[in-house]
Structures are given as structure tokens and as C-alpha cells.
């Protein structure tokens, strides 16, 4: 996965060329490059994420103590699903290579970020709902076999575990460890990995803010379908913007969206 350190060509100006110091100039608590690339910036983002009125399950994954432990994570996750506890913490090893600096580009735009617009000045929310809004024949079809019936069949509760964090922080590794462990305990899971989805469903998207927002929106919708199917859907995306993560959370029933923040130091 460290091949990712080589930036991929992508249209749009100014993503790969900015000096590291500029990347760190916005919203960074500790100054350029202190504590390794990425950690300080993520910490700033975490402050934003974990304050306010988001009384929702958040799993904070702190760095520094032991290797990713899918088994411990699965234990805690299943406990959380049963009791609706709010916070759990899993310590993971931080002795990883530094994440590539280009992965921090998106944070440049985070504080005071303007809403995404298309060339006609439409907000992205209007864009994505416009088809149904104008149509008179797009109707919702229900079926007597619903989420409840599927969950009974699978003997589990459909939900979304949303792993967010910098590129290279260990999201995919954790997603895989959790999936493997839940699978071994008889739970049906499915991983939506940002990298993989950009080979197919999201291959038309780039890394500008509006494309990232659309990427996250699509994955949120797909994750919702998997949860509705009764699966434990593990989404692993950088998903740097709080507003987009919140929008995804709102797609799910209360407490069936569990946010995992991968905090690397
Ligand atoms: N700026 C830029 N340029 C080139 N490549 C990039 C860039 N940002 C991300 N990546 C790579 O894309 C992978 C998937 O990113 P995501 O879809 O999770 O990003 S986002 O949620 O839309 O922000 C992401 O995967 P991970 O490293 O697993 O996070 C990277 O491999
Ligand atoms: N807990 C860990 N300890 C050591 N190395 C790790 C750990 N988690 C992930 N890695 C390694 O770090 C690299 C990036 O991990 P990855 O899961 O691909 O991150 P992401 O999905 O966030 O980009 C990989 O080479 C992976 O093997």
C-alpha cells in the first residue's frame, strides 16, 4: 500500500505541488512536521469531530501501544452494538512509515471551507437530488421482506462502521482485521474501501473537495444499502470533512453508524 506515496496524476490545479509547510499552515496545532507527518493535523480535526452535538458512537483509535488487534476490536464493537455504549478506545502501534504528504492536501480547505458548487453555482446537495426533484414517476417501492426480516435471517444487526483518518494511517488494515474477526465469529461483513471503490463506482472522481464530497456521499449511500441488507458494512475512507460524515450518519438509523477515527501520532 505504500506505493501510494507516489502521487497519482489527477486533473485539477495545485494538489501535488504545494510545499509541505503550506500544507501545515491551516488548522495545525503543532507547526510544520512535528511528531511526524499527519498526526498533529488529525488531532486538530479530531477536536472538531468530537465536540458539538454529535452524541453518536465514536470509536477513537489512538496510536502508540500495540499492533492492530482485530479480535479486541471485534469484542468491543460487538459490545457496543449490544449496549449502545458511546466511546471505545483501541490502541494500535504507531511505528508506521510516515504518510505521504500529498494525502494532507485536502485539509488545506477544511477551515472555513466554502460549499461545493458546480459550474452553474448549484450546491452539491441540489445537484445530487435534482433528478428525483423534477421527476413525477420516480416512486419508492416497498417489499414485505425488509431489513428486519433480513436481520433475523442473519442473526445480526445491520450497521455501518465508518473508519476515517489520513492516508497511510492504517484504515484498510483495521477494516480487514475487523472483518476477518467478525467473519470468524459468524457475522456477515462487507468492506467499502476508498481505494478499491475508486477503481469502479467512483472512478470518475478526483481529489478536489467537491469530488471527495461526492465520493463520500456515494459511499454513504452504498453503506446504507449494505446496512439495510443486514450486513455489518465497514467503510474505510479518508473522509476528511465533518459535514460529509455527518450527512452519511444521518442516512442511518440512530446508533447504527459507528465512526472510527484513526488517530496516528
Ligand atoms: N490527493 C491525492 N492524490 C492522489 N491519490 C490520493 C490523494 N488523496 C488520497 N489518495 C488515494 O486515494 C485513496 C482513496 O481515498 P479516499 O477515497 O478514501 O479519499 S476521500 O475520502 O475521498 O477523501 C487513498 O487511499 P488510502 O491511502 O487508503 O487512504 C489514497 O491512496
Ligand atoms: N498498526 C500498524 N502497525 C504497523 N504498521 C501498520 C499498522 N497498520 C497499518 N500498517 C501499515 O501501514 C501501511 C498503511 O496502512 P493502510 O491500512 O493501507 O492505511 P490506509 O488504509 O489508512 O491508507 C501499510 O503498509 C500497513 O501494512
UniProtKB/TrEMBL annotation:
Annotated GO MF terms: adenylylsulfate kinase activity; ATP binding
Chemical reaction(s) catalysed: adenosine 5'-phosphosulfate + ATP = 3'-phosphoadenylyl sulfate + ADP + H(+)
GO biological process per UniProt: hydrogen sulfide biosynthetic process; sulfate assimilation
Pathway this chain belongs to: Sulfur metabolism; hydrogen sulfide biosynthesis; sulfite from sulfate: step 2/3
Stored CDD domains: APSK
Keyword Kinase: yes
Alphabetic keyword roster: ATP-binding, Kinase, Nucleotide-binding, Transferase
EC number assigned by the record: 2.7.1.25
Annotated APS kinase domain residues: 157-264
Family of the protein in this entry: Belongs to the APS kinase family.
Record function comment: Catalyzes the synthesis of activated sulfate.
Protein name from the UniProt record: Adenylyl-sulfate kinase
Source organism per UniProt: Aegilops tauschii subsp. strangulata
Amino acid at each position: 500500500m505504500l506505493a501510494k506515496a507516489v502521487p497519482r496524476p489527477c486533473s485539477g490545479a495545485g494538489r501535488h505541488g504545494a510545499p509541505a509547510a503550506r500544507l501545515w499552515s491551516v488548522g495545525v496545532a503543532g507547526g510544520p512536521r512535528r511528531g511526524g507527518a499527519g498526526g498533529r493535523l488529525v488531532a486538530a480535526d479530531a477536536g472538531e469531530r468530537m465536540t458539538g452535538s454529535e452524541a453518536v458512537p465514536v470509536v477513537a483509535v489512538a496510536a502508540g501501544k500495540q499492533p492492530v488487534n482485530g479480535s479486541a476490536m471485534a469484542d468491543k464493537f460487538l459490545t457496543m452494538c449490544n449496549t449502545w455504549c458511546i466511546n471505545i478506545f483501541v490502541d494500535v502501534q504507531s511505528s508506521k512509515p510516515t504518510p505521504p504528504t500529498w494525502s494532507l492536501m485536502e485539509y488545506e480547505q477544511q477551515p472555513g471551507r466554502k460549499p461545493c458548487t458546480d459550474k452553474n453555482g448549484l450546491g452539491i446537495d441540489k445537484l445530487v437530488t435534482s433528478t428525483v426533484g423534477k421527476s413525477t414517476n420516480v416512486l419508492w417501492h416497498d417489499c414485505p421482506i425488509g431489513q428486519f426480516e433480513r436481520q433475523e435471517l442473519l442473526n445480526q444487526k445491520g450497521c455501518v462502521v465508518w473508519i476515517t483518518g489520513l492516508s497511510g494511517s492504517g484504515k484498510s488494515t483495521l477494516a480487514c482485521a475487523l472483518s476477518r474477526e467478525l467473519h470468524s465469529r459468524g457475522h456477515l461483513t462487507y468492506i467499502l474501501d476508498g481505494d478499491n471503490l475508486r477503481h469502479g463506482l467512483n472512478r470518475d472522481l478526483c481529489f478536489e473537495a467537491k469530488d471527495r464530497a461526492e465520493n463520500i456521499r456515494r459511499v454513504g449511500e452504498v453503506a446504507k444499502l449494505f446496512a439495510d441488507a443486514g450486513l455489518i458494512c465497514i467503510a474505510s475512507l479518508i473522509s476528511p470533512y465533518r459535514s460529509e460524515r455527518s450527512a452519511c450518519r444521518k442516512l442511518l438509523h440512530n446508533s447504527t453508524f459507528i465512526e472510527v477515527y484513526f488517530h496516528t501520532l
